[in-house]
Specification:
CATH class of the domain at 125-358: Alpha Beta
Bound molecules: pyridoxal-5'-phosphate
Shape: globular
Number of helices: 17
Pfam families: Aminotran_1_2, GntR
Family: In the C-terminal section; belongs to the class-I pyridoxal-phosphate-dependent aminotransferase family.
GO molecular function: DNA binding; DNA-binding transcription factor activity; pyridoxal phosphate binding
Largest sheet: 8 strands, mixed
Distance between the termini: 40 Å
Organism: Pseudomonas chlororaphis
Helix content: 40-55%
Radius of gyration: 24 Å
Keywords: DNA-binding, Pyridoxal phosphate, Transcription, Transcription regulation
Length: 465
């Protein structure tokens, strides 16, 4: 059994073995009771030490994934009983909220459809330095709550950075949040009533759809074009509906990689003003964008603007922010205080440090350059292999593309053969409709497994006789 251990990865080897074995069991639906190869065999085949393999198996026993007999041989454990908490009638059952952006959970496969940078792309030196600085010099950063708007030193830096996008945001119009996710949640809680309807992009960001469903908000689907939301389709929607808000992911859109053009932005804003519709601009991929710089919030101070540092610096620090008019910021800040007591002051202080000393600016420059090179290479391969690409992205993480072999199940089988994990065929549609388009994460796409898959999809195409 090949476990595909990456010795350069930051993930410890034992954890990789755990992930690979779990993935094998889930992906291949391995029957309970199936016996694993012996520890010695697994270790020898994968050039691992027996103690690492043994430790991984013991962890899986502790997690209930494996069972052990006579202390040395391991079997796939029977599935746990569901143990629903509703026996006493107190905990109502809910349909699952999340559909997930990836097609399955195979731990060892290349996450071609992933939504973020791989860990091996992340850089820890400057981050480690900033963490040590805060630990040594900032006792409040280490131990205290933050303020309700967020750390002033961070908001000062954010205000400066936003100027580069022509967004004028005084510090007291900026609210820090626990990632963009909390920003979106606060906006939905405070600006939208259950039962109201909003316009969302299709394809678009799955977690936004799940959040809106959670709050009982109806969604109207607006097709995304390579230049932004489809303005004609919006006009048609507005002729028959009265949506309270429009959500737009302006730059390096998830999942299509496309960015908003100035013409589309101006027409969207004119329609929003005419119909009294709130505009929420989600710009979490902003720092991956090189040249094109159209932002709704730069054109209209009433736009609610959301940013984040998850995609570039760290998804673990959980720092995002909102820019909005003063009354909205006041309400968001109140609810943030009540529901979370604020963002981690430690994370805010670390980020403020990296913004102030220029390390963050240099980090995103390096990331843009590397992504730009990989983007060009992948687009070339896709073109040669006859894939259809949805507009050529000018930056960012994603390409939205359709293989010449237009049957998702066949493409999925092919991907599995090459050890590649695809994006889900339904997650990016607000209504969960099936799609043959795939989100391709450029940071994974130069891996030989992905390149072989792109080319393989062209070869597997049914021949026209
Ligand atoms: C469009 C979009 N908005 C928001 C988020 C959430 O970002 P954060 O990690 O800052 O909560 C993501 C993450 O994938 C995203 O793609």
């Amino acid at each position: 059994m090949e476990l595909r251990i990456d010795r350069q990865a930051l993930v410890p080897v034992v954890q990789q073995i755990v992930d690979a074995l779990t993935g094998w069991i889930r992906q291949d639906a391995v029957q309970p009771g199936t016996r694993l190869p012996s520890i010695r065999q697994l270790a020898r085949q994968n050039l691992l030490s027996q103690s690492s393999v043994n430790e991984a198996c013991e962890r899986l026993v502790a997690q209930g994934v494996l069972a052990s007999r006579h202390g040395s041989s391991f079997f796939v454990a029977p599935p746990p009983s569901l143990g629903l908490a509703s026996n006493d009638g107190t905990c109502p059952e809910h349909p699952p909220l999340a559909r997930g952006g990836l097609a399955d959970n195979s731990a060892w496969a290349l996450k071609l459809g992933a939504g973020g940078l791989p860990e091996r792309w992340r850089e820890s030196d400057d981050l480690g330095y900033a963490i040590r600085q805060v630990t040594r010099t900032d006792m409040a950063g280490l131990f205290s709550y933050s303020t309700s708007l967020g750390l002033p030193a961070l908001r000062e830096q954010l205000s400066r950075r936003l100027k580069q996008l022509n967004i004028e945001a005084a510090q007291d119009l900026i609210l820090s949040t626990h990632g963009a996710t909390q920003a979106l949640d606060l906006i939905v809680r405070t600006q939208l009533a259950p039962g109201s309807c909003v316009v969302v992009e299709s394809p678009g960001y799955p977690k936004l759809f799940e959040l809106l469903r959670l709050h009982g908000i109806d969604m109207l689907e607006l097709p995304r074009t390579p230049r932004g939301p489809d303005v004609e389709a919006l006009q048609t929607l507005l002729a028959t509906h009265r949506p309270r808000a429009l959500f737009v992911n302006s730059a390096c859109h998830n999942p299509t990689g496309s960015s908003l053009s100035l013409g589309v932005a101006q027409r969207l804003l004119a329609l929003a003003r005419e119909h009294g519709m709130l505009v929420i601009e989600d710009d979490v991929y902003a720092d991956f964008q090189g040249s094109t710089r159209t932002r709704l919030a730069a054109l209209d101070a009433d736009v609610i603007y959301v940013g984040s540092f998850s995609k570039t610096l760290s998804s673990s620090l959980r720092v995002g922010f909102v820019v909005a008019p003063a009354p909205i910021i006041a309400r968001l800040s109140e609810v943030k205080e009540v529901t979370s007591l604020g963002v981690s002051r430690f994370s805010e202080a670390v980020l403020a440090n990296l913004l102030a000393n220029g390390a963050y600016r240099k980090l995103v420059q390096r990331q843009r350059q590397r992504l730009g090179g990989d983007m060009a290479a992948v687009l070339q391969v896709l073109e040669e292999a006859d894939w259809e690409v949805f507009g050529k992205p000018t930056g960012g993480l994603f390409i939205w593309a359709r293989p010449p072999l237009c049957d998702y199940a066949g493409v999925q089988r092919l991907a599995k053969r090459f050890g590649v994990q695809l994006s889900s065929p339904t997650a990016f549609s607000p209504s969960g409709a099936d799609s043959q388009w795939l989100r391709i994460n450029v940071a994974y796409a130069c891996d030989p497994r992905a390149l072989a898959f792109f080319r393989g999809a062209a070869l597997d195409r049914p021949r026209v006789s």
